[in-house]
Write a structure and sequence with these properties.
InterPro entries: Carboxypeptidase_A_C_sf, Class_I_gatase-like, LdcA_N, Peptidase_S66_N, Peptidase_S66C, S66_fam. This is LD-carboxypeptidase. Keywords: Carboxypeptidase, Hydrolase, Protease, Serine protease. Belongs to the peptidase S66 family. It comes from Bacillus canaveralius. The chain has 2 domains: 140 residues, Murein tetrapeptidase LD-carboxypeptidase, N-terminal domain (Rossmann fold); 142 residues, Glucose Oxidase, domain 1 (3-Layer(bba) Sandwich), CATH 3.50.30.60. By secondary structure, it is an alpha/beta fold. A hairpin with a 4-residue loop joins strand 13 and strand 14. The model has no long low-confidence stretch (mean pLDDT 97). Helix content is 28%, strand content 22%. An 8-stranded mixed sheet has the order 6-14-13-8-9-10-11-7. A 6-stranded mixed sheet has the order 2-1-3-4-5-12, sandwiched between helices. It is built from 9 helices and 14 strands.
Length: 307
Amino acid sequence: MAIRPPLLQRGDTIGLVTPGSPLDANIINARVQTLRDMGFNVVFGRHVYAYEGIVAAPATQRAEDVMNMFRDPGVKMILPTRGGTGVQTILPYLDFAVISENPKILSGYSDITVLLNSLYQFSNLITFHSLMLIDFKPDTPAYNFNQFFEATSTSVSPRTIQNPPDMPLMSLVPGNVTGPIVGGNMTSLLNTLCTPFEIDTRGKILFLEEIHAPTTTIFRYFTQLTMSGKFQDCLGIIMGQCTDCLVSYQTTYQDLINDWLVPLGKPLMVNLATGHGVYKAAIPIGATVNLDTVNNTLTVLEPTVSL
């Protein structure tokens, strides 16, 4: 069983880090004010405001900020300001043993995907494919905040993950499987292949989402995931949205799912609200879930935080 981080409560301290691309200081400050208005204290990693082109700071410095937050007993949750590019470069500099001894909530998506899955895979820590600092703003849909706080601030179990109204979950291949859930952004996950941080889908339920990728790119991604055994190794598949993805050669994202994934015969659910879409379900990476594509439900079977 994976390690559950302590739950988040109003009045707790959230530690901000920028593990990938930089974020404008004015945006950071505005989002921090939202967190404070919600009743949280905020502390800053040394390189939160740094800017060195594509990445905020050298990988060793960004990794140091993450490790300092895990070591700080006053920090309850670690919140990346954004994803962007370059999160993968900090992974060799993380101390996964220290992280497992100091479990904390860490939430994010996009390029943060590699951090979420690595913390589960190498520290056995449940992490959350959910909101980043950039999402804490007054016009964020209530659904997103409800999902986030239900996952990080309550020990409710079991918890059924439901899409917002008028956005139905759909199942394409019937079945019923139970196992840990892993995954996230396809681009980020593919970048881990043939590295020490390659995602392990054996006996897992795999969920995927993408943004700004033409279907020719998704075709390439499905090819690589197939040839690397990731689809064959997993128990079932959940496909999130392909946000702002362009149609190539009159072939849609749904066409590719039908052509590549349906023939695998594994339980297959599509249209989960995750990641880059307007609506963001909170997916606990490493937690045990039940994927029931007969009754069309996705259920988290265990508490994802500890009291």
